[in-house]
Amino acid sequence: MKKSIILFLALLLMSTFNVIAEPGSTTKYIPESSNSVVLCKNMQGDEGLKWIYNTWINSPRDDSVMRHFVKTVGLKELSVAVFPPENGFSLYMIIVLEIPADAKINPDLLNTMLLKGLETKGAGMKSMDYKSKKITYVHNKPVKDELSAYCIIDNIIVLATDPELLKKAIDGPAATESAHYKDAQSLVSSSRDCFYFAENSEGRFAQFLQPLEKKWKLSLLLSVEDLLWLGSSFDIVDSNKATGEIIFTGADKAAMDDIVDDAEFIGEAFKRKFTAEKINYTGVVDVAENKVKLTFQIEGLEPLWTSLFKVGVINTLISN
Fold it and tell me: What is the value of pTM for the model shown?
C-alpha cells in the first residue's frame, strides 16, 4: 500500500514542479519533443518548496549526481524533461539547473560525479563542440539510465542521459512554445506554486506511462489514449500539506465518460491509499466541455516525503 503512495509522490516531483510564471531561464533548454516537462522556481523563497529542497539535499543517499552538485553550488531553478525511451534507455531525460550567478562551476566535480564507480570499467570523459557549445560526456559507459553528459552555458548546467539529448536541448524549439502547453498553463490556477504538463500528441504521455504500469503492475490512467494533454497546478504548502488540481483534456468528446470515470477512480484510489497511511485526502471532480478537473487537498505527507528521498526519486521510477 505504501509503495503506491511513494510512486505517486515520485511522479508528482517528476511531473508537477512547474511554477506558474513566465517560462524560466532553464525551460528554453527543454525540447518540444519531450512528453512531460518540469520546472521548479523560487526554490528558497517558498516555504513548502524550501522544505522539499533542504530535505532532498540533506537526505542520507550518497549516489545522486544532481544532489551532490546542487549541495555544492546552490540552486535557483530546476527544469526536467522526460522523453520516449530511445537507445536502450528506460528513462530518457534532461535536467537543467540554474545556479546563483556568483557561484563557481567546477567541471572536475561534475566529471567526478558522472564517472563515480565507472573508472575501473574503462569509462572516461570526452568533449565535443556543437553549435559553439561544449558538450562533455562519459565515453564507454557500461550502464544506462543515469546522467552521463552535460553542457555549461553561463550559470546554466544542462545534464542528460546521453549527448544526443543535449544536442536537442541546444537545437530547440522549447516545449513552452507548444500550443498545448500554453493552453494548459492558461487553464490551471495561477495562485498555486507549481504547474505540470504532459503532451499526449502521437501518444507521447501514453508511451511514458505504459512501461511504468507494466513494471509496477499498477494501472495509472486507463483513458490515457483518449487524452490530448494533461495539466496540473500544485502547491506544496508546507512539509505536511499539499493542494492541487489535475486537468484531463480529451482528444474526442465521445471519450469523456471514460475520462470522467478515470478521474473519479484516481480520486477514490488516492483517498483509500492515503487513508491507509493515516493521511487525509479530499477531492472533487468537475466537468466542462472536453475537460475534466480533479481538485484535491492532502495533509500528513511529511513521513512519505522523507521515505521517497531515502529511496531516491529516479530509483523509485526505474526500479523493478
Answer: 0.80
